[in-house]
Amino acid sequence: MTQPIIQFEGVCKSYGGQAVLRDFSLEVFPGEFLTIIGRSGCGKTTALKLVNGLIAPDAGRVLVQGEDVAQTDLVALRRRIGYAIQSTGLFPHMTVEKNIAYVPSISGMRGWKGAQRREKAAALLKRVGLDPALAGRYPRTLSGGQRQRVGIARALAAGPELLLMDEPFGAVDEITRGQLQDEIQRIHRESGITILFVTHDIAEALKLGTRTLVIDKGAAQQCGKPEEILRRPATEFVKMLAEQQRQTYLPPDEPLEDRAYCGAGTPLRAV
Ligand SMILES: Nc1ncnc2c1ncn2[C@@H]1O[C@H](COP(=O)(O)OP(=O)(O)OP(=O)(O)O)[C@@H](O)[C@H]1O
Ligand SMILES: [Mg+2]
After folding, report:
1. What pTM, to 2 d.p., does this model score?
2. 46-69 burial string, b = 16+ CB within 10 Å, else e?
3. pLDDT at residue 161 above 50?
4. Spacing of C-alpha 61 from chain mean position
5. Which residue has the least CA distance to atom 31 on ligand 1?
6. Which atom of ligand 1 is nearest to the CA of 55?
7. Count: domains in the chain
8. Which CATH number covers residue 232?
9. Does 46 sit in the ligand 1 pocket, CB within 6 Å?
10. Would you say residue 254 lies in a domain?
């Protein structure tokens, strides 16, 4: 059986006596695009930060590629994991090229100097749908959507097998957002990278996810293929979330339980 790339085993995490995650367990398999959705403050960012060791669980374990994060060299771990966040976190005093090359450079990866660095950064810029001519620009001279794309290019630069994305498209307009969603889907398809993608937008979660995890009240409410979330919501909260999207994705007037299950890998299409 394939080994999960990420495992949460009975993870508990509290802040100031307030439980954020309670006995939280999850397995993510290589090549999945797992979207995580839930209300603000439900613990989505907390879950991502447990994966790259930015925070540690109070109880339970988080494993990446079978290794307990608590026992792992965190610097080495983070080099294997791309991390893209809503605010992009680009370094303002560095050009786009230097931002992209940052992790490979500090990691001492070969082939990231001079002309090779230029070539690699240009290839990454193209991969995220940007003109390589932007390489010499500074982040402040880019649009919000361009900055998001550079943030993704930077997260991909060291060739990670795992990409953590925390509401990466939150700060852009609807059209740009749709384009960025298409780009990340293409990158996922072409590279086979595993993606953990946090969003508070159910439409985005269902469009992008090969599986979607719904979190509420510190616990997983349901984790399933988008079709399952829509057709067989496990809890009232999931049902409430899915309700509007059912109208977008499924033909009208079909009762909840009677639908035939679409099966693995069937992409959702708006009707
Ligand atoms: N360092 C911290 N100290 C104290 N409380 C924290 C800390 N980090 C997070 N929290 C609290 O933990 C809860 C979960 O936070 P988290 O950032 O995981 O939520 P989220 O689901 O990502 O929310 P959002 O959708 O708003 O980004 C929140 O109530 C938050 O206030
Ligand atoms: Mg968050």
Report:
1. 0.89
2. bbbbbbbbebebeebbbbbeeeeb
3. yes
4. 20
5. 41
6. 1
7. 1
8. 3.40.50.300
9. yes
10. no
